[in-house]
Amino acid sequence: MNLPTFILKNALRNRRRALLTVLSVGISCALLVTLLTLQRELTVPPESQAASLRIIARNKVSLAQPLPAKQLRVIERIPGVVAVSPFTYFGGNFRDETLTSFAQFAVDPVRFRGLLVEARVMEGSYEAFEKDRLSCMVGIETVGRYGLRIGDRMKFTGTFYPVDLDLKIAAVFGGTIDDRGVFFHHKLLDELSGDPGTVGTWYIRAASPEVANDVIARLNGAFANTAAEVRAETERAFQLGFVSMLGNVKMLVLLISGAVVFTLSLVTISTMSMAIRERFRELAVLKALGFQRRELFAFILAESFGLAALGALLGVGGAWALWTHLDLQKLTSGFLIYFEVTPRIMAWGAAVAALMGVVAALPPAWQTARMSVTEGLQTLD
């Protein structure tokens, strides 16, 4: 019998306990990976390269306060601005839903074409969307989810606005970070609302990332000390503003993750201590045969680390497979768009399991080191 076989036989001596240990480590690692992925998705919104050029300007007082439509002429003249369009959130409910998961925005179709540059028209034509003020452009994920086609009607019941929409699908887009939204003519919203001469926000594209900060500063300065001051920020900063409304999600997830790791430590340490305590007589015999303390510690460490590594493989790999192939967007009704288990998160899960395997080996190794051959031989199995 060689050393690896000896370690393996000891680890699997009580197969039920070994299986439960591996499962406890695996489930804990899977939960840890899930929590870290959830934290990442909630606190780090996905961003495309084109999004780094886009800026959103809203009313400085509150997002609920509209901005005058006449600001458009001033924004167009700001150096570094390539495209600008009104961008007003409608927030209606589709069909008979009480809470629709995809957003609807009123835009200027001609101007908007220069903003969503990464989008590709998958079906229909953008020109048809431009020409028909009763039409809309819909994300391909929404089309697939509801089984829609070009020419179908989309009816929305107003929530923020006291008007309803009856739109015809003219184009289907894809290729963006979020292929769920619906865009329709701002002129239609103005007509239905009695032409108030306001917009929700301004959607702006800068010429390059280098001038984006200058454009933001100029936008804020252009309307300073007016009745409708604006707060301009990058698209990413705007998204993070919504995330902050959820509270300190990062701290909450870290606390839960800490509890998971602590529980994992207790389970693994308890199991390893029990397994080694049952073999004190055998370890004493090995000592009598001339094995050194460091060699006995290596046996214990290999056994503990092996069980933890197997649990990490099961938990981290299982979490990756589950969240990669599960349609979480459908499961959460669109609350979560992506749930990507990144290599970094997987490495964190594996590292925590490996650390626990090492930590779990320390108490029994310390007991073995302090045990004399006589005391070990007197121990009952």
Structure report:
By secondary structure, the protein is of the alpha+beta class. It folds into two domains: 3-46 and 247-378, no CATH class; 61-228, no CATH class. Helices cover 53% and strands 17% of the residues. The strands form two sheets. Strands 1, 3, 4, 5, 6, 7, 8, 9, 10, 12 and 13 form an eleven-stranded mixed beta sheet that branches. A two-stranded antiparallel ribbon has the order 2-11.
Low-confidence stretches: none
Euclidean distance between termini CA atoms = 23 Å
| Largest β sheet strand count, sense and barrel closure | 11 strands, mixed
**What is the percentage of strand-forming residues?**
15-25%
Order of helices and strands: HHEEHEEEHEHEHEEEHEEHEHHHHHHH
Quantity of strands, as a count: 13
Mean pLDDT equals: 82
- Shape call: elongated
Radius of gyration: 30 Å
Number of domains: 2
- The portion of residues assigned to helices is 40-55%
Structural class: alpha+beta
- Tally of DSSP helical segments: 15
